[in-house]
Amino acid sequence: MPFLRNHWYVGAFAEEVGHEPLNRRMLDEPIVMYRSEAGEPIALSDVCPHKSAPLHMGVVHGDTLACPYHGLRFDPSGQCVHNPNFDRAIPKAARVRSYPVKERDGLLWIWMGERAKADTVTIPLCDLAQPSVTSRPVKGYIHVKAHYELLTDNLLDQSHGETLHPYLLKEGATSRMQFEVRQERDTVISDGLLPKEPITPILSGLWDRGPIDRADHRFIVTWNAPSYILLTISAYPPGSNSSEGVTGTNAHLLTPETAGSTHYFWIFARDSRLEDDPFDEELTAALNQTFVNEDRPILEWQQTYLSELGDLVKRHPLKADAGGVRARRVVERMLAAERQK
Ligand code: FES
Ligand SMILES: [Fe+2]
User: Fold this and answer.
1) Distance, CA 81 to ligand 2 centroid (Å)?
2) Closest listed ligand to the CA of 70
3) Is the CB of 51 under 6 A from ligand 1?
4) How many angstroms separate the alpha carbon of residue 302 from the centre of ligand 2?
5) Could you read off the pLDDT of 118-142 as tens digits, one per residue?
């Protein structure tokens, strides 16, 4: 299964990685992450070049990682620098792949493509995880046994909210929504506006601006390849604009694990209830209910049926699928370009 390789993918939240090695498969490659003595993140192939032992079960010594089986140690460049065995000589050819890794905005971004093309300027901006005077985040990680493009389809599709997520949309809302999908170069945007709607549960939870019965609701999903998705949800007094109301900005950062599974990192930053500690827990539980208990089972069953039945199943696209279709086309084109190089 091909993946776009010349991109930065989230390997972990920054706080997940310390001096204990963490293993995570990305784009079907087993990777181990740890930190140097100075705290710099390091990402290496997890497969020892001696006998394929899992390096993540080893121990960090200074800046090096020792294999748990025979103790070969590898430095941050992946080179073997220590051999405690009978021969003691360092086998120069023994090295593991080292991946460019950059810590930014509380995330560890790993470059999965050709090293010479790794440019940190292309790391997506995602500064939601840092609390500020105008923004307060909650976040989480979900493992989903489904291909990442099924998640992309799901996040760009605004029509499933009403059926699957009572916390997000009220009954009948989809038929009242003004909805369009547009594309600006390689960015796909799915845009929904619900004028004068009884305030929906999630936005009523965020609302802290005085009594309101009905609000204009705006849901904008912005997708960029391969799988960076930003969803903003706003409610504001009818006829005004989002700066008059409340907004939740939700990053969904998808990293393919295998052809049938995905690491799903999410961050939700709100611009309201900024001093409300207990609300963090309430909001996290509600978002987990949405992603983990409502979306995930559907996505995993889709994956099961697609894997088992493939093209035997007829598919009938609906209008709301336009975003996912466009995103897939962009990925296809980028994959073809990567193959040609
Ligand atoms: S398998 Fe790693 S040192 Fe032998
Ligand atoms: Fe959903």
Assistant:
1) 48
2) 1
3) yes
4) 14
5) 999 999 988 899 999 999 999 999 9
Tokens representing 73 are 């140690």
The best mutation among 51, 61, 74 to test binding of ligand 1, ranked by most ligand atoms within 8 Å of the C-beta, falls on 51
- Give the model's pLDDT for residue 211: 87
Residue 329: C-alpha distances to residues 113, 156, 185, 306, 338 (Å)? 21, 14, 12, 19, 14
Asked if 127 contacts 105 with a C-beta cutoff of 8 angstroms, the reply is yes
Return the ligand 1 atom nearest residue 51 CA: 1
Torsion of CA 184, 188, 193, 198, to 10 degrees: -150
Model pLDDT for residues 195-253, shown as the tens digit of each residue:
999 999 999 999 999 888 899 999 999 999 999 999 999 999 999 998 999 999 999 99
Q: What pTM was computed for the model? A: 0.95
Q: Read off the pLDDT of residues 82-110 as tens digits, 9 standing for 90 and up.
A: 999 988 888 889 999 999 999 999 999 99
Atom nearest to 67 CA in ligand 1: 2
Cis peptide before 226 (omega within 30 of 0): yes
Q: How far is the CA of 324 from the centre of ligand 2 (A)?
A: 13
pLDDT at 79 over 80: yes
| Distance of CA 291 from the midpoint of ligand 2 (Å) | 6
Q: Which residues pair with 47 in a beta bridge?
A: 54
Q: Which range is least confidently modeled, 25-34, 47-56, 126-135?
A: 126-135
Nearest residue (by CA) to ligand 1, atom 3, is 70
Q: Which domains does the chain show, CATH number per domain?
A: 8-122 (2.102.10.10), 130-340 (3.90.380.10)
Q: Tell me the C-alpha to C-alpha distance, in Å, between residue 271 and each of 184, 203, 209, 241, 275.
A: 27, 11, 11, 15, 11
